Amino acid sequence: MTEAARAPAHDTLIQESWSRCRDYGLTHQSSPRFDPPAVGELSALLESRQALVQTTHQEVLPYYGTILANSNCLIMLADDQGRLLQSWGDQRFIEPRQAAGFVAGASWLERYTGTNAIGTALSCGQAVHIQHDEHFLKANRFMTGSASPIFDEQRRMIAVLDVSSDSYLPPAHTLGMVKMMSQSVENRLLLKLFADQYHLLSFNTSLDNLDSPWAGLVVFDEQGHVVSANRRADNLLGHALTYGAIEQLFDVPLQQLLNQPDGQPFSLRTSGHFRFHARVRRPARPAPIQPRDFRPQATPSTPQEPQLHTLSAGDARMDKAVRQAERLLEKDIPILIQGETGAGKEVFVKALHQASSRANQPFIAVNCAAIPAELVESELFGYEKGAFTGASQKGHVGLIRKAHKGTLFLDEIGDMPLRVQARLLRVLQERCVQPLGSSELHPVDVRLVSATNRPLRQDVDSGQFRADLYYRISGLNLELPPLRERSDKQALFQRLWEQHREPHQRAGISREVLELFQHHPWPGNLRQLSSVLRVALAMADDQAIRAEHLPDDFFLDLPTDTTLQARPEPDDLASQYQACGGNISYLARHLGLSRNTLYKRLREQGVRP
Ligand SMILES: Nc1ncnc2c1ncn2[C@@H]1O[C@H](COP(=O)(O)OP(=O)(O)OP(=O)(O)O)[C@@H](O)[C@H]1O
C-alpha cells in the first residue's frame, strides 16, 4: 500500500490513540510508567509464555537476521498485556534513563506509556507504525517503531511483535516486515498445535510462495471439517473463513484432498473460482473422530447481551419503551429510566448504547449508590494529583471524562448527594468537567442515561433531589414494568431458560413450574428469574424443570395457595408435598403446622423416611 493511501487511516488511528491517552489522564509531559512486575510474578509470566518466546527466537527470527543486522533496531516481543517478554538486537540506542522500559516485564500499555507501537497495536488490534513525534509522551519520542499483533488458533490476540529504533525506519518497509514476522510466528504455532494430528492445506498465488509466511493455511480433519486457519487464508479467499466443511471453501471433493500425495503441489480453485497453488501435509497420527473445537469464539466470560429490539416479547409497555428509545438513539436528549430493582434497567441501557453509533466508544456505568458519598465527587469529576489528602499521586481522570464520546450511565441517581447533584448539573449545562484541585475545564461529549428505582418525583417534592437536575436528566422518562405485570411473561420464561441452559439441556420447563412462575410476584424481577432458572437448570440436569428443582426461597414469596392451584387435585399429604417440590417450610406455612409436626406426619404416611 502506498504511503498516500495509508495516511488517512493512520492519522485517524493516531488521533484516536491520543484521545485515549488524554482520557487516561496523561499529558505530553507525563513520565512513562512501565510498572515492572515483582520478581516472582515475572518468572511465572516468562514461564507461561515460554513456548511463544522460543518459537519466535528459534523458528522465526533466524529468517530475518540479515535484514535486521544492518538496521540498528531492537525486536521486542510483548504479551497481550503489553508486558515485554524478550528483546533481541541492538540495545545501544537506549539511554540509561529509558532503560526501565526495555527490561523483561516492562508494560507498554497505552494507559501507562501513551501512544507507542506495542500499546497502540494492542489497543486497536492491528499492525501500526509510530513515528518519533506520534508518541503521546515526549519522553518516548526518541524512538520510532512498528508492531503487529499475534493471534492464536482461535484468533485471540496473545502477543505483539515490535521492531523499534532511535533512527529513521522506513514506515512501509518496517511495517511490512513486522507483519510478516508476526504471521510467521502464528503459522509456526498453528503447525506445532495441529501438524501431528490434522491435515494442513497451504495455498498461495504462485508455486514459489507456497512456503512463505504469506501462504494461506487451513487445518482440517479426516471428515473434512475446518478446525483452524491462519489470518492470511481469509485474505486470500477474500472473506472471513467459515469453519464448516473444507469442500465449501474449495471446489474439490474431500477424498481428492485426502488422496493428494503428501507435500506435492497441485492447483486448486476456490468455490469463488480463484485459482491457487496448494499442497497438503498429512498428519502422523490422525485426530480422534471428535475434534476439539478451535473455532474463533466470543470470550466465554462475555455474557450474551440482548439487543434493544429483543427486550420486549410483546408487552405493550415494554414495546413502547423500546420504540421510544429507538427514536432517540442518535438524539442528544438525556433519558431517565425508572423501574423496580432487577427489572432490566442496566441491560436496557447497554442495549441502547450497542444499538447507537457510539457502540465502539466507552460505556461507563456508575452506581451512584455504591460509591461512598465522600468519594462520589472525586470518582465522577476526577482530581489533580495531590488535590486532597489520600489522593493518588497520578491524579484521576474521573468517570465522566472516561465516558467521553460514549455513554455515561448513572445508575441509582436518586442516591447522589445534593452537593454532587449541583456539580453534575453544571457539567450537563456547560459540557465541561473541572477535576478537583484543578482550574482546567475539560470538554466532554457524553450520552447521558440515568436510572433509579426511587420515586424521583417525590424526592424532588421532598427536597431530596434537585428539581433543576431532575428536568435536565429526564428529557425522556421511560418506565420499565415489573416482571409480574408484564403480559409477555411466558415468552420471557422460555427466553431466559434458552439463554441459561447448556446445549444438552433440552427438556424445557414443566407445566406445573410455568404455572408457579406465572403466579409468582417476582420481587427481584428478571434478576430473580434469571437466578431461579440457573439453580433449577443445575438441579434438573437433562430433565424438565419441576417444582422440586426450584430453590427454597422461591416458595417463600409465592401466594400461599398457588402451589395447590397449580395442581388441581392434590388432597392428600403426599401429593401436596410433591406439588410444592418437597419444600417443608412452604408446606408447613400453608398447612398451618410447625415444621416438626409436618415431618412427623410425612413419616407416618410413608411420604418421607
Ligand atoms: N432482557 C433481559 N434478558 C435476560 N436477562 C435479563 C434481562 N434484563 C435483565 N436480565 C437479568 O437481570 C439482571 C439484572 O438486570 P439489570 O441490572 O439490568 O437490572 P436493574 O433494573 O438495573 O437492577 P437494579 O435497579 O437493581 O440495578 C441481569 O444481570 C440479567 O441477569
UniProtKB/TrEMBL annotation:
Would the keyword Ion transport turn up in this protein's UniProt record? no
- What GO MF annotations does this protein's record show? ATP binding; sequence-specific DNA binding
Question: Gene3D superfamilies, per this entry?
Answer: 1.10.8.60, 3.30.450.40, Homeodomain-like, P-loop containing nucleotide triphosphate hydrolases
Sorted keywords for this record are: ATP-binding, Nucleotide-binding, Transcription, Transcription regulation
Q: Where is this region: Disordered?
A: 280-310
Transmembrane annotation, as ranges: none
Q: Name a Pfam family for this protein.
A: AAA_lid_14
Q: Which PROSITE patterns does the record match to this protein?
A: SIGMA54_INTERACT_1, SIGMA54_INTERACT_2, SIGMA54_INTERACT_4
Query: Any keyword NADP?
Result: no
Every Sigma-54 factor interaction domain range: 311-538
Q: Which CDD domains would you find in this protein's record?
A: AAA (cd00009)
Q: Which GO terms describe its biological process?
A: regulation of DNA-templated transcription
| Protein name as it appears in the record | GAF modulated sigma54 specific transcriptional regulator, Fis family
